[in-house]
Amino acid sequence: MLRKLARSIRDVKKPAILTPILIVGEVVMEIMMPLTIVRLVGYIRAAEGTGSMKYVIICGVQLLCMALISLLFGALAGKTAAKASTGFAKNLRHDLFVSVQNFSFSNIDKFSTSSLITRMTTDVNNVQMSFMMIIRTAVRAPLMMISAIIAAFSLHPTLPWLFVVVVPLLGLALGMIIKVAMPLFNRVFKKYDALNASIQENVKGMRVVKAYVREDHECEKFGTAAEEVKREFTRAEKVVALNMPVMNFFMHVNMLVIAFFGAKLIINGNPSVAGSINVETLSSLLTYSMQVLMSLMMCSMIFVQIAISVESARRIVEVLDEKAEIVSPQNPITEIADGSFAFENVSFKYQKGAEKYVLSDINLTVPSGSTVGIMGVTGSAKSSLVSLLPRLYDATEGAVYVGGKNVKEYDIVALRDAISVVLQKNLLFSGTIAENLRWGNPNATDEELVAACKIAQADEFIRTFPEGYASHIEQGGTNVSGGQKQRLCIARAILKKPKILIFDDSTSAVDTKTDAFIRKGLKEQIPNTTKIIIAQRVASVMDADVILIMEGGKIAAQGTHGELMQTFPPYREMYEAQNRVNEEGGEA
Predict the structure, then answer these.
(1) Residue 588 CA, distance from chain mean position
(2) How much is the pTM?
(3) What is the largest CA-CA distance in the chain?
(4) Do 382 and 550 contact (CB within 8 A), yes or no?
(5) How far is Cα 129 from Cα 142, in angstroms, rounded to an integer?
(6) H or E element: which one contains 464?
(7) Which of 305-314, 365-374, 395-404, 569-578 is the least confident region?
(8) Rounded to 10 degrees, what is the CA torsion of 284, 289, 292, 298?
(9) Are 517 and 462 a contacting pair, CB within 8 Å?
(10) Is 384 in a helix, a strand, or coil?
(11) How confident is the model over 13-56, as pLDDT tens digits?
């Protein structure tokens, strides 16, 4: 896990290495100052009434220089630690995002959207904080503690042994706190995922919430999720909160014991019992005692932060370790000959352990340039069927061919560039209309944009906007209607100039007249492109070269409109029912 996370350090290695070096310089200066003070106080006491201020001034200048150097090292260490930790977090988020972008749909199905968001935000923040503490505080605290203990033993051979007794006791107490807190923090992050899911779902479905006047219900649901996060976090923090009072208790007890025995030795004046000691030595020992125990407190803070971030790190590495199930083969084919495709004994299920197949025994051959209509009730696996062509999923059994070759032989980028998919709920991004259209072809000219939009019946409404193709689209396309959004997405797909163009119920929000114009434009303007139209309206597919009727993941019937009207009664009944509705409603 650490090796996987360490890969994200890459371009910030220099500040990450420089930070501990600067910390060493800071600690050395802080350790030397009490020793200098001991010499200064000893000189003042020994030279009372006869000494010179020259030595005092020299020691004062030395102390000032040490303090300034310590300040400089500390400030530089803070700067390099910040640069290293923020750069590490940036790289880690980038690596996570790239990893997710490379996922196949089956990989994405393993993680919820809210969980991925939490991993890229909260979890990365936790790991970033731990990384900064590791390269700075985790170096400073042990180094300060060891140096202070060594310096203390150089002043007195007996009293510093109190540090050696206290350190294991504090370590034991800290270990018990972390052992109890870790499982609690593990549960907290699962609650975070649920909370983010509630937020995402509510914001995305805000129109539905308001349409059904469910604001109070959603507020109550969010409040419940937030309360669960608070409750779990409170339980974890209650345990972690014991850390500070335990540290303070040991720190003050240790200082009290040192002060007591040190004062006793000074008052008794018996150097043969435990070595010589004087006031300045005791003062420095108390300073070192404070440094040792403050270092221990910093160590405890590090361990607490690490305890919090271990689960975050595990969740991050889980995403980084996830291997895309669909990858390009060695020496892949990069050219797709044409838009022909075939299914040969294809069966498919989304999860290997699933008992039931989503698609079963699919056999189909379609020549290039054909128009294929696909109909069926909701859940009949229409979308699942076409998702196998661009390898959004791989067939569980059998083989899928495009352009005469097995899709598994193609380079994935080349294959997906040759296949455009227009979904019923396609997404537009914030930016201008032209910028959204150029997702299909970044190098498309203005003339090509207009031509694609004319085929998609989008040019007319675009020109009604004050700024035309430069008009701004809000995130998600919230400032255009559903039909306008679908036509823009169709134009975007046409701009790719694909060999196969798939419409997954993507004209459901446009009227039948506009739908007919779109189909006419596709037939006339891109005749060599294979077109697959998934629809609920017979009118959308009746001119297709072949119509597939899906039932229960199988092709129940196939043929032209005329053939199905004669041989497949359910299709005829659907056509007659829809025609009757159109005539009664007066729809053209």
Answers:
(1) 48
(2) 0.67
(3) 125
(4) yes
(5) 18
(6) none
(7) 305-314
(8) -110
(9) no
(10) helix
(11) 999 999 999 999 988 888 888 778 777 777 776 666 565 678 78
Least Cα distance to 320 among 145, 96, 477 occurs for 96
Task: Report how far residue 528's alpha carbon sits from residue 278's, in angstroms, rounded to the nearest whole number.
Answer: 99
DSSP strand E in 441-534: where? 472-473, 500-504, 530-534
CA separation for the pair 570, 236 (Å, rounded): 61
Alpha-carbon distance of 491 to 520, in angstroms, equals: 14
Q: What is the distance between the alpha carbons of residues 285 and 314, in angstroms, rounded to a whole number? A: 42
Number of residues written out for the chain: 588
Q: Residue 124: helix, strand or coil by DSSP?
A: helix
- Token pair 């989503």 is found at 358
Pairing type for strands 530-534 and 500-504 reads parallel
Q: Is 290 exposed, middle or buried (0-12, 13-18, 19+ CB in 10 A)?
A: middle
Q: How far apart are CA 402 and CA 344, in angstroms?
A: 12
Other beta carbons within 10 angstroms of residue 396's beta carbon come to: 17
Q: Give the helix ranges, DSSP H, for 322-428.
A: 382-386, 412-417
Structure tokens at 588: 């053209």
**Total Cβ atoms within 10 A of residue 300:** 22
At which residue do the structure tokens 């290997």 appear?
352
Please name which of 559, 509, 564 lies closest in space to residue 537, comparing C-alpha atoms: 509
Q: Choose among 531, 323, 530, 329: nearest CA to 413.
A: 329
Residue 319 C-alpha from the chain's centroid: 8
184-221 pLDDT, tens digit per residue, is 766 776 677 677 777 767 766 676 777 667 778 778 87
Environment class of 186 (CB within 10 Å of its CB; exposed 0-12, middle 13-18, buried 19+): middle
Give helix 215-240 / helix 161-204 axis angle, nearest 10°: 170
pLDDT for the residue numbered 92 = 92
Question: Which secondary structure element, helix H or strand E, spans residue 193, and what is its range?
Answer: helix 161-204
